[in-house]
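Fill in residues.
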């Protein structure tokens, strides 16, 4: 391997890996985690006030590390943004101001070499969609035919692509977004891209009722899915996992009460962040921790997936994890090198050098 560090911009990462390959990588990574080989630390947010600004702002640094021995990869994802916390709807919500920057540092576990630096803007919809799809393979009925998608942004693209990769038998998709033009445009994209009959609907309830599987990809403050709307046999996947100071919800407490099987990416993260979507139904006695499993346990067989056609299943895609970034970005770097994509930087820029003779006393 060349003694260089490969820099990949977001535009250069697109198309390097297929969703099917990313789902496979996620299954291998989560199995490694379930076998106590892969290692993660909880996602952390560093917050600092931004002075000399017209409105109260905070600097947020999002830190997500993980190691995956089966892929010989270690990664650290870092993203930075400014956010304010106005109280729309009476609940605190982080509002990003001026965009964000995000990078993944990828090391080879066996050699400690830094392999690459990957902009993560295009990586996130892939890793989130593939993780939702992996859980759906265990939890969604094999004969699922009708899907509901609440949300019509970039994350929704990843969610739908992942779902249709693992459940190609789905023949109809309903999509809801509060903005009519967005949901119409998204439905047209699904029709054109997958040959699935997709239609925009005018309410979240219409999107949920009659669906065999429901995915959400929103920035909602208050729940957009009600447990009362769920049909027997439905699989639900929500993807909001916020820190304790951001209490956004996508699913109401009744979803936790009605779910027969509940799976999260990380119980430790849910506890660490006091994530309202999971903790609120637990506090009310609708759900208990002993009924909550982790995705890694599904991948190792220590937890059962769906075993009955009438079960309601819920996957809380509740946090980004370093093993996702390590596995996907390592593979992207390999493929990019083989295609001559990216910018190569001298490896010695990123390697600590031993002190030369006579320099040991120089600072």
């Amino acid at each position: 391997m060349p003694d260089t560090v490969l820099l990949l911009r977001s535009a250069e990462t697109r198309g390097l890996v297929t969703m099917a390959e990313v789902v496979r990588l996620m299954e291998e990574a989560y199995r490694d985690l379930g076998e106590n080989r892969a290692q993660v630390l909880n996602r952390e947010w560093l917050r600092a006030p931004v002075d000399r600004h017209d409105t109260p702002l905070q600097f947020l640094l999002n830190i997500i590390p993980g190691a995956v021995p089966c892929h010989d990869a270690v990664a650290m994802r870092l993203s930075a943004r400014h956010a304010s916390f106005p109280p729309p709807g009476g609940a605190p919500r982080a509002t990003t101001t001026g965009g964000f920057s995000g990078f993944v540092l990828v090391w080879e576990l066996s050699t400690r070499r830094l392999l690459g630096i990957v902009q993560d803007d295009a990586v996130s919809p892939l890793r989130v969609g593939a993780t939702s799809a992996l859980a759906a393979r265990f939890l969604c009925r094999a004969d699922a035919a009708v899907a509901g998608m609440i949300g019509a942004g970039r994350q929704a693209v990843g969610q739908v692509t992942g779902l249709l990769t693992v459940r190609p038998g789905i023949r109809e998709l309903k999509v809801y977004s509060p903005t009519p033009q967005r949901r119409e445009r998204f439905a047209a994209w699904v029709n054109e891209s997958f040959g699935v009959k997709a239609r925009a609907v005018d309410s979240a309830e219409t999107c949920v009722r009659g669906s065999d599987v429901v995915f959400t990809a929103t920035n909602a403050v208050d729940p957009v899915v009600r447990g009362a709307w769920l049909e027997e046999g439905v699989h639900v996947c929500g993807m909001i996992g916020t820190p304790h100071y951001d209490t956004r919800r996508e699913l109401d407490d009744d979803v936790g009460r009605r779910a027969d099987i509940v799976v999260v990416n990380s119980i430790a993260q849910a506890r660490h962040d006091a994530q309202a979507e999971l903790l609120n139904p637990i506090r009310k006695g609708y759900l208990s921790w002993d009924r909550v499993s982790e995705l890694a346990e599904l991948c190792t067989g220590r937890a059962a997936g769906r075993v009955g056609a009438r079960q309601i299943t819920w996957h809380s895609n509740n946090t980004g994890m370093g093993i996702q970034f390590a596995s996907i970005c390592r593979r992207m770097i390999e493929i990019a090198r083989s295609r001559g994509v990216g910018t190569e930087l001298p490896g010695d820029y990123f390697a600590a050098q031993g002190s030369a003779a006579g320099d040991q006393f120089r600072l």
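The mean pLDDT is 93.
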